[in-house]
Amino acid sequence: MTMSIPRASGGSGIAGGLILPGLTGANPLGFLAALGLLRRLSDRFPPGWPRMGWTAWGGTWVPVVVAGTGVPLLEGPLLDLLESTLTQEFTLHPASLVERLEAVASSPTDRRKLIEKTARDGELHAWASALASDFVSPDAINQLQTTRRDYFLGNLKSVIARTRREHLERAIFHPWDYGDALDNQSLHLDPSEDRRHAYQWNKPAGDPERKSRGGMLGANRLALEAIPLFTSLPGRKGLRTLGFSGDRSDDTRWTWPIWSGSLSIDPIVSMLGLTILQQPEFDRDDRSSLRSRGIVAVYRTRRILVEKTPNFTPPRCLT
């Protein structure tokens, strides 16, 4: 049974929308899960709908989804839509492109042909534009990918196959309890997954707790659907992903906005790429410019390397 969630009563264009209190915008995983949810719902509504904004809730920012003028959106029907939209068969999901790219990684010609073929399928091409390039090494990865390369494919398969309705409900409508296993079913996007020796009792490798708790499977499933929004282009040292700055383990940062008005998916992608978001710090004029665009907060996390594993640091609010 879903909990009773109040509808938004204020904000520009989001009054009456459905509040999703589990998906905090101050967490990289929560932000991506919100985008992934909106992206998948967009396939089931008329062009320009649904729309999403953010509202203050419990000391943080959470998304509010509006289905359309005079169109109510409730918890049960939202979960029904997601259940019918999110496949559990990896071979039917465009993320299976990862497996095909790995299969031709040693042949630049075959890899190029595979990437070119994706242009015939808009969804597959979006994944290719995020994950691959003809012009850089096949070892280059989207900067959002923080799962170790040798584990990434297995984790993708597990997240897609194992997510059920109850995982989605807990991630979207409830405070996160981190009650799902982490082992082999996480995209490693939550800063809480930076578990080094000094931070825990058990040795990170082989930690038995990972098999029973520490993750939010539903949030990972939704966040996976946001990956194609983050197009990658050739940079100096690999792929440069939308919203990121830097190329090295000591200078790579991801910055994302929180906005108050309701926007559909295309304007949101444009906002993610705003140059002003990459300022080292924001002065008074920058903050005024951000407010004029409806941006009420900006978060930034560092992408660091801990031994062989990339991690996101706890983000800080810049505004």
Q: Your description of this structure?
A:
With 319 residues, this protein is an alpha+beta fold. Among the domains are: 18-85, no CATH class; 245-317, no CATH class. It has 10 helices and 12 strands. Strands 8, 9, 10, 11 and 12 form a 5-stranded antiparallel beta sheet that branches. The protein has a 3-stranded antiparallel beta sheet with strand order 1-3-2, with no helix packed on it. A two-stranded antiparallel sheet has the order 4-5. The model has no long low-confidence stretch (mean pLDDT 90).
Summarize the topology.
Layout lengths: L17 E2 L8 H15 L8 E7 L2 E7 L8 H11 L11 H7 L4 H10 L4 H10 L17 H14 L2 H9 L6 E2 L32 E2 L1 H8 L7 E4 L2 E4 L2 E2 L7 E7 L5 H8 L11 H9 L2 E12 L2 E4 L3 E2 L2
Antiparallel strand pairs: 1-3, 2-3, 4-5, 6-7, 8-9, 9-10, 10-11, 10-12
Radius of gyration: 19 Å
Helix and strand element order: EHEEHHHHHHEEHEEEEHHEEE
Give the CA-based shape. globular
What percent of residues are in strands? 15-25%
* Class by SSE composition: alpha+beta
Q: Main β-sheet: number of strands, strand sense, barrel status?
A: 5 strands, antiparallel
Q: So how many helices? A: 10
Q: In percent, how helical is the residue content?
A: 25-40%
